[in-house]
TrEMBL record:
It holds the Pfam family PG_binding_1. It comes from Sulfobacillus benefaciens. Residues 56-90, 118-157, 207-258 form the Peptidoglycan binding-like domain. It comes from the Bacteria. InterPro entries: Peptidoglycan-bd-like, PGBD-like_sf, PGBDSf. SUPFAM superfamilies: PGBD-like. This is Peptidoglycan binding-like domain-containing protein.
Length: 286
Protein backbone atom coordinates (compact mmCIF):
# COMPACT_ATOMS: atom_id res chain seq x y z
CA UNK A 1 0.00 0.00 0.00
CA UNK A 2 1.17 3.54 -0.76
CA UNK A 3 1.09 6.37 1.76
CA UNK A 4 -2.41 7.52 0.81
CA UNK A 5 -3.88 4.10 1.60
CA UNK A 6 -1.97 3.90 4.88
CA UNK A 7 -3.16 7.37 5.87
CA UNK A 8 -6.86 6.86 5.14
CA UNK A 9 -7.64 3.17 5.76
CA UNK A 10 -9.30 0.99 4.80
CA UNK A 11 -8.69 0.85 1.07
CA UNK A 12 -12.04 0.92 -0.73
CA UNK A 13 -12.08 0.96 -4.53
CA UNK A 14 -13.46 4.28 -5.75
CA UNK A 15 -17.01 3.79 -6.97
CA UNK A 16 -17.47 0.37 -5.39
CA UNK A 17 -20.07 1.53 -2.84
CA UNK A 18 -22.65 4.24 -2.32
CA UNK A 19 -21.36 6.99 -0.03
CA UNK A 20 -23.68 8.83 2.33
CA UNK A 21 -23.95 10.25 5.83
CA UNK A 22 -24.79 7.43 8.21
CA UNK A 23 -23.96 6.01 11.62
CA UNK A 24 -21.38 4.68 12.09
CA UNK A 25 -19.57 7.02 9.71
CA UNK A 26 -18.19 5.60 6.47
CA UNK A 27 -14.41 5.79 6.32
CA UNK A 28 -11.79 4.88 3.76
CA UNK A 29 -9.75 5.88 0.78
CA UNK A 30 -12.81 6.42 -1.41
CA UNK A 31 -14.12 9.09 0.97
CA UNK A 32 -10.67 10.71 1.14
CA UNK A 33 -10.56 10.85 -2.67
CA UNK A 34 -13.90 12.65 -2.79
CA UNK A 35 -12.59 15.18 -0.28
CA UNK A 36 -9.20 15.68 -1.97
CA UNK A 37 -10.54 16.02 -5.50
CA UNK A 38 -13.33 18.36 -4.34
CA UNK A 39 -10.77 20.64 -2.67
CA UNK A 40 -8.40 20.74 -5.61
CA UNK A 41 -11.27 21.45 -8.01
CA UNK A 42 -12.43 24.34 -5.83
CA UNK A 43 -8.94 25.79 -6.19
CA UNK A 44 -8.76 25.14 -9.94
CA UNK A 45 -12.23 26.04 -11.21
CA UNK A 46 -13.10 29.65 -12.00
CA UNK A 47 -16.81 29.66 -12.88
CA UNK A 48 -18.50 33.03 -13.45
CA UNK A 49 -20.97 32.43 -10.62
CA UNK A 50 -18.17 31.85 -8.11
CA UNK A 51 -17.00 28.69 -6.32
CA UNK A 52 -19.44 25.86 -5.71
CA UNK A 53 -18.62 25.79 -2.00
CA UNK A 54 -15.89 25.88 0.61
CA UNK A 55 -12.95 23.56 1.23
CA UNK A 56 -13.37 20.69 3.69
CA UNK A 57 -11.10 18.57 5.83
CA UNK A 58 -9.28 15.67 4.26
CA UNK A 59 -9.80 12.97 6.89
CA UNK A 60 -11.37 10.03 5.05
CA UNK A 61 -14.58 10.27 7.11
CA UNK A 62 -17.95 10.93 5.46
CA UNK A 63 -19.33 13.47 7.91
CA UNK A 64 -21.71 16.44 7.55
CA UNK A 65 -19.15 18.61 5.73
CA UNK A 66 -18.53 15.91 3.13
CA UNK A 67 -22.27 15.51 2.65
CA UNK A 68 -22.52 19.27 2.07
CA UNK A 69 -19.62 19.15 -0.39
CA UNK A 70 -21.43 16.36 -2.24
CA UNK A 71 -24.57 18.47 -2.39
CA UNK A 72 -22.50 21.39 -3.69
CA UNK A 73 -21.17 19.20 -6.50
CA UNK A 74 -24.63 17.88 -7.33
CA UNK A 75 -26.20 21.34 -7.37
CA UNK A 76 -23.41 22.78 -9.50
CA UNK A 77 -23.65 20.05 -12.13
CA UNK A 78 -27.44 19.84 -12.18
CA UNK A 79 -27.86 16.47 -10.46
CA UNK A 80 -30.38 15.42 -7.84
CA UNK A 81 -29.22 17.12 -4.65
CA UNK A 82 -29.38 14.41 -1.98
CA UNK A 83 -25.83 14.31 -0.59
CA UNK A 84 -25.47 10.66 -1.68
CA UNK A 85 -22.66 9.61 -3.98
CA UNK A 86 -24.06 7.07 -6.41
CA UNK A 87 -23.54 6.41 -10.14
CA UNK A 88 -24.51 9.89 -11.37
CA UNK A 89 -22.23 11.71 -8.93
CA UNK A 90 -19.37 9.28 -9.50
CA UNK A 91 -19.73 10.05 -13.21
CA UNK A 92 -18.89 13.71 -12.50
CA UNK A 93 -15.57 12.41 -11.15
CA UNK A 94 -15.14 10.42 -14.37
CA UNK A 95 -15.91 7.04 -12.78
CA UNK A 96 -18.45 4.91 -14.58
CA UNK A 97 -20.25 2.35 -12.44
CA UNK A 98 -23.43 0.35 -12.85
CA UNK A 99 -25.24 1.32 -16.03
CA UNK A 100 -22.65 4.01 -16.70
CA UNK A 101 -19.65 1.67 -16.77
CA UNK A 102 -17.43 2.86 -19.61
CA UNK A 103 -15.48 1.13 -22.37
CA UNK A 104 -17.33 -2.13 -21.77
CA UNK A 105 -15.92 -2.75 -18.28
CA UNK A 106 -14.67 -4.06 -15.95
CA UNK A 107 -15.15 -1.04 -13.69
CA UNK A 108 -11.94 0.93 -13.31
CA UNK A 109 -10.09 -0.05 -10.13
CA UNK A 110 -12.05 -3.25 -9.54
CA UNK A 111 -9.09 -5.56 -10.17
CA UNK A 112 -5.31 -5.48 -10.29
CA UNK A 113 -3.92 -5.23 -13.81
CA UNK A 114 -0.70 -6.57 -15.24
CA UNK A 115 0.81 -7.66 -18.54
CA UNK A 116 -1.56 -9.79 -20.58
CA UNK A 117 -4.78 -8.35 -19.15
CA UNK A 118 -7.36 -6.83 -21.46
CA UNK A 119 -10.53 -4.80 -21.01
CA UNK A 120 -12.12 -1.42 -20.63
CA UNK A 121 -10.27 -0.79 -17.38
CA UNK A 122 -6.98 -1.20 -19.25
CA UNK A 123 -8.25 1.36 -21.78
CA UNK A 124 -8.86 3.80 -18.93
CA UNK A 125 -5.37 3.25 -17.49
CA UNK A 126 -3.96 4.03 -20.92
CA UNK A 127 -6.23 7.05 -21.47
CA UNK A 128 -5.27 8.54 -18.12
CA UNK A 129 -1.54 8.07 -18.63
CA UNK A 130 -1.74 9.19 -22.25
CA UNK A 131 -2.64 12.72 -21.11
CA UNK A 132 0.94 13.21 -19.85
CA UNK A 133 4.55 12.40 -20.67
CA UNK A 134 3.70 8.70 -20.53
CA UNK A 135 2.23 9.03 -24.02
CA UNK A 136 5.80 8.68 -25.34
CA UNK A 137 6.00 5.31 -23.59
CA UNK A 138 2.56 4.12 -24.68
CA UNK A 139 3.31 5.16 -28.29
CA UNK A 140 -0.32 5.42 -29.38
CA UNK A 141 -3.97 5.67 -28.35
CA UNK A 142 -5.44 3.24 -25.84
CA UNK A 143 -6.09 -0.25 -27.19
CA UNK A 144 -7.26 -2.03 -24.03
CA UNK A 145 -4.31 -4.44 -24.01
CA UNK A 146 -1.84 -4.34 -21.10
CA UNK A 147 1.39 -4.89 -23.00
CA UNK A 148 5.02 -3.98 -22.31
CA UNK A 149 4.53 -0.30 -23.24
CA UNK A 150 1.68 0.01 -20.74
CA UNK A 151 3.82 -1.69 -18.11
CA UNK A 152 6.59 0.87 -18.64
CA UNK A 153 4.10 3.73 -18.43
CA UNK A 154 2.59 2.41 -15.19
CA UNK A 155 6.04 2.11 -13.62
CA UNK A 156 6.98 5.64 -14.72
CA UNK A 157 3.77 7.01 -13.22
CA UNK A 158 4.51 5.28 -9.91
CA UNK A 159 7.99 6.81 -9.95
CA UNK A 160 6.54 10.30 -10.47
CA UNK A 161 3.95 9.78 -7.72
CA UNK A 162 6.71 8.79 -5.30
CA UNK A 163 8.59 11.96 -6.15
CA UNK A 164 5.41 13.94 -5.49
CA UNK A 165 5.54 12.62 -1.91
CA UNK A 166 3.11 9.68 -2.06
CA UNK A 167 5.58 7.04 -0.88
CA UNK A 168 5.34 3.27 -0.72
CA UNK A 169 4.47 2.05 -4.22
CA UNK A 170 5.63 -1.48 -5.03
CA UNK A 171 8.49 -1.36 -7.52
CA UNK A 172 6.62 -3.28 -10.20
CA UNK A 173 4.57 -2.49 -13.33
CA UNK A 174 1.28 -3.68 -11.80
CA UNK A 175 -1.74 -1.38 -11.59
CA UNK A 176 -2.83 -2.05 -8.02
CA UNK A 177 -4.65 -0.25 -5.22
CA UNK A 178 -2.12 2.53 -4.64
CA UNK A 179 -1.77 3.11 -8.36
CA UNK A 180 -5.52 3.55 -8.80
CA UNK A 181 -5.83 6.07 -5.99
CA UNK A 182 -2.86 8.02 -7.36
CA UNK A 183 -4.52 8.21 -10.78
CA UNK A 184 -7.62 9.70 -9.16
CA UNK A 185 -5.45 12.26 -7.39
CA UNK A 186 -3.19 13.22 -10.29
CA UNK A 187 -4.70 12.42 -13.70
CA UNK A 188 -8.38 13.53 -13.54
CA UNK A 189 -9.38 12.57 -17.11
CA UNK A 190 -9.58 9.45 -19.25
CA UNK A 191 -12.29 7.46 -17.49
CA UNK A 192 -14.87 8.28 -20.13
CA UNK A 193 -15.16 9.96 -23.48
CA UNK A 194 -16.11 13.62 -23.10
CA UNK A 195 -18.35 15.50 -25.48
CA UNK A 196 -20.81 18.32 -25.79
CA UNK A 197 -23.54 19.83 -27.96
CA UNK A 198 -24.84 20.05 -30.59
CA UNK A 199 -24.32 16.42 -31.56
CA UNK A 200 -24.44 14.83 -28.10
CA UNK A 201 -25.97 15.26 -24.67
CA UNK A 202 -23.45 17.41 -22.82
CA UNK A 203 -21.05 15.64 -20.46
CA UNK A 204 -19.82 17.87 -17.65
CA UNK A 205 -17.50 17.13 -14.75
CA UNK A 206 -14.07 17.36 -13.23
CA UNK A 207 -12.47 15.67 -16.24
CA UNK A 208 -13.74 18.58 -18.34
CA UNK A 209 -11.99 20.97 -15.92
CA UNK A 210 -8.72 19.18 -16.61
CA UNK A 211 -9.19 19.33 -20.38
CA UNK A 212 -10.05 23.04 -20.19
CA UNK A 213 -6.87 23.75 -18.20
CA UNK A 214 -4.70 21.92 -20.73
CA UNK A 215 -6.34 23.59 -23.72
CA UNK A 216 -5.97 26.99 -22.06
CA UNK A 217 -2.27 26.28 -21.46
CA UNK A 218 -1.97 25.51 -25.18
CA UNK A 219 -3.59 28.84 -26.04
CA UNK A 220 -6.65 27.18 -27.59
CA UNK A 221 -9.27 27.86 -24.93
CA UNK A 222 -10.17 31.28 -23.56
CA UNK A 223 -13.38 30.48 -21.69
CA UNK A 224 -14.08 29.83 -18.02
CA UNK A 225 -12.53 26.87 -16.20
CA UNK A 226 -15.95 25.65 -15.12
CA UNK A 227 -16.24 21.92 -15.94
CA UNK A 228 -19.05 22.50 -18.44
CA UNK A 229 -18.54 21.07 -21.92
CA UNK A 230 -20.19 23.97 -23.68
CA UNK A 231 -19.68 25.55 -27.09
CA UNK A 232 -16.39 27.26 -26.17
CA UNK A 233 -14.86 23.98 -24.98
CA UNK A 234 -16.21 22.17 -28.02
CA UNK A 235 -14.63 24.67 -30.40
CA UNK A 236 -11.31 24.50 -28.55
CA UNK A 237 -11.30 20.70 -28.82
CA UNK A 238 -12.10 20.92 -32.52
CA UNK A 239 -9.28 23.43 -33.07
CA UNK A 240 -6.89 21.10 -31.27
CA UNK A 241 -8.02 18.13 -33.34
CA UNK A 242 -7.58 20.13 -36.54
CA UNK A 243 -4.05 21.15 -35.58
CA UNK A 244 -3.19 17.53 -34.75
CA UNK A 245 -4.60 16.16 -38.01
CA UNK A 246 -7.04 13.79 -36.32
CA UNK A 247 -10.81 13.37 -36.69
CA UNK A 248 -12.51 16.68 -35.94
CA UNK A 249 -15.56 15.45 -34.03
CA UNK A 250 -15.32 17.40 -30.76
CA UNK A 251 -15.13 14.16 -28.79
CA UNK A 252 -12.30 13.71 -26.32
CA UNK A 253 -11.67 9.97 -26.55
CA UNK A 254 -8.59 7.70 -26.79
CA UNK A 255 -7.10 9.34 -29.89
CA UNK A 256 -7.52 12.86 -28.55
CA UNK A 257 -6.26 11.88 -25.08
CA UNK A 258 -3.10 10.55 -26.71
CA UNK A 259 -2.53 13.70 -28.75
CA UNK A 260 -3.15 15.85 -25.67
CA UNK A 261 -0.35 13.99 -23.94
CA UNK A 262 1.98 14.47 -26.88
CA UNK A 263 1.49 18.19 -26.26
CA UNK A 264 1.64 17.94 -22.46
CA UNK A 265 4.96 16.30 -21.63
CA UNK A 266 4.60 16.84 -17.89
CA UNK A 267 4.48 14.47 -14.96
CA UNK A 268 0.98 13.49 -13.84
CA UNK A 269 1.06 15.80 -10.83
CA UNK A 270 0.92 18.75 -13.27
CA UNK A 271 -0.60 21.08 -14.38
CA UNK A 272 -3.31 20.66 -11.70
CA UNK A 273 -0.95 20.19 -8.78
CA UNK A 274 -1.95 18.20 -5.72
CA UNK A 275 1.09 18.09 -3.40
CA UNK A 276 1.52 15.54 -0.66
CA UNK A 277 0.18 15.86 1.93
CA UNK A 278 -2.69 17.76 0.31
CA UNK A 279 -3.17 21.15 2.02
CA UNK A 280 -6.29 21.39 4.17
CA UNK A 281 -7.62 24.51 5.88
CA UNK A 282 -7.31 24.11 9.68
CA UNK A 283 -10.26 23.41 11.92
CA UNK A 284 -12.50 21.80 9.30
CA UNK A 285 -14.41 18.57 9.85
CA UNK A 286 -15.38 15.97 7.24
Amino acid sequence: MALFENTFPPYVAFGSRTLSLRSPRLTGTDVALVQAVYNVMLKTMKPPQGPMGSAIALDGVFGPATKQATMNIQSYFGLEVDGIIGPDTYFVFGQGVGGQTTYGGPVYGSRQLQRGDQGGDVTIVQNRLNCFRYSTLLKGPADGIFGPDTARAVLAFKYDSEHNGDRGFPDNPIAGFGFYDATWLYTFAGGRAIWGPPDHVQRNGFDVVFIQVLLKNMGLYTGYIDGYYGSATLEAVRRFQTLEGIAVDGIVGPVTFYHIGRNNQQNASSPIALPWPPPVPPGLGG
